[in-house]
């Protein structure tokens, strides 16, 4: 994503339909102070900590697995009907660290590989690359994941002498595809994971953002009766990106190097102690305070954001329809929620085209090729609705339409001349 | 260190001469709010950010290399007479992440190794283990590092077809040895690093804590005219551990994978973007505010802590002298600052003995064997003075003396019987 940030910095006047950061209109610096105070009072009043202990909890080195684990567990119970032992949680420096820790734990040796539904979030492939852990793509099906291909890929890896450890996926409003897996698909995936003896790494940053009247579906973890799912959570989209607080639920029983059996969460904590020691208790306190102020539910707390995303998603999809009427070769997804729409165009979309789009047309988007690891040309781009206004969407789509028209004509002219 | 935390939790009544966390008497939760406000005003008044930009800086995703880099650079100029371009700094989630990023950058392939002065801080060896990066020990000499052995180890590694990339060391009041390198030793190390073409990774968490009238020495980085030194800094001991904010100065020019040449800091930022994305701007704001409130100098700001550590260090060393008079086989280091004293005893010191010390004698310390990677028996333990009162030091030393007396007698009896 560094590359995209650099492009955005080079063309500050361009409308960005690339940025996936959350809506910031409702951000409130004053709330930081309130959240800190709320959490401080919680330590004293609810947990019975004396003044010295409160100081120590907020300001010293602390518990590797975190200090808001009980509140995160409550949040999962309230918002996801998911019962999690607080001890099975590790609070991390954003969801990215959670991903990194899980991949490191799964990479026990050079034969280990993970699978990931393609197109894949770059944070996953980037973390795996740092760890020399190969990522093998699994095809996206009409309902999120092609389960048949998942089985084929697991067996193929085994036939090559490799150990497929887990499959990474975002069941809800995935980044970048925007697709969601239906409930039957979720159950089928859990069955398949048990049959093939692999874990599912469920990443759920967008689950609270169904569009309009769309129904929220149970998470894989909520349907998981056999501890097949490692669940990654983020507060970046629901509370504040700047807190850099995420978490992982890892209730699997695993053999530790010393021969004892314990929670995967404890193995992750050992790894974390050598990466970041512990997540800043001050940052955790901000998130903990925000949770406490909303009875540990973020569904109601994010109503304004959900409305903004819904409005923008509808505005974008409607706007695409007006600019690319029936008969146009341009196609797009119509997701039921989340931040992202994928637009398919009649030409390959690469970084050079993005630069030209930024420079000559003043609009930014994300080449879908970034989300595949094979370097093959991809005729698609990702649009994000999370950090723009409807007016900016209009301007951005006008500019995108001009680019698509010009690029299509240019290619046709080249073919004619050729 | 997880093991030590577990022992400490098992024996809460034991006096801990093991904990290396900073003195917490002067911690102040109210200061958190003040620091946040100070930094917010700095963004608006000094950097000219409008209200929206201030919100975005404090609450959104942000610059991978950090938002207080200019203040850290000023701090290094004021306190260390060290001129650093802010662009050469990466603000990290504690110094541990800085260490992790540097090791990952140095591990370009399976032939890369790093050297480290032994005994070695466990955060370094633990991070290297996560990255499958071998760490080869270099002997400690009378003045911190045995430069001759460093040269031998570099050449031996090369003769084995390996690439020794860097040597890790703490020139000031090292953890765990307590030793410091004199100025001539520092210059000799820099010459050696240039001659042998390796980097020096200078870790400096304790540099602001000379005892009493001891003089602070120039950092390796301040003497480095050839960009041989990667400098790791921490605010955990000087501002707050709970902020989890550290940094790395990496002004080396390196070839990036895309063929361009740039700063090592930028390569570290790319790695960081896949580990933690960025350091919480809220945590950075707390540290930034603290820096601003003290004119970016932490020397004056830590005068009370320095006095407490000095008092404790003298009290501990005097107390050892009273309990183990001339003729005793017990020896100890007399560091010129920092948190740690190493005590050599006439028997091997392992985790089993620590458990017995905690259970039967009520005193905790750290077996020095933890700081060596070879598993050989070590007849020494580390005492820390940072998180205790003089009265606790007295009780702890009485208990330690009883343990040493009993254990020595037990061993002699076993020898006699045998």
Automatic annotation (TrEMBL), chains A, B:
The keyword Transferase is annotated on this UniProt entry: yes
Keyword set, alphabetical order: Aminotransferase, Pyridoxal phosphate, Transferase
Span of domain Aminotransferase class I/classII large: 57-400
GO molecular function annotation: transaminase activity
Cofactor: pyridoxal 5'-phosphate
Annotated CDD domains: AAT_like (cd00609)
Alphabetized InterPro entries for the sequence: Aminotransferase_I/II_large (IPR004839), Class-I_PLP-dep_aminotransf (IPR050859), PyrdxlP-dep_Trfase (IPR015424), PyrdxlP-dep_Trfase_major (IPR015421), PyrdxlP-dep_Trfase_small (IPR015422)
Coiled-coil region: none
Stated name of the protein: PLP-dependent aminotransferase family protein
Organism phylogeny: Bacteria, Bacillati, Actinomycetota, Actinomycetes, Micromonosporales
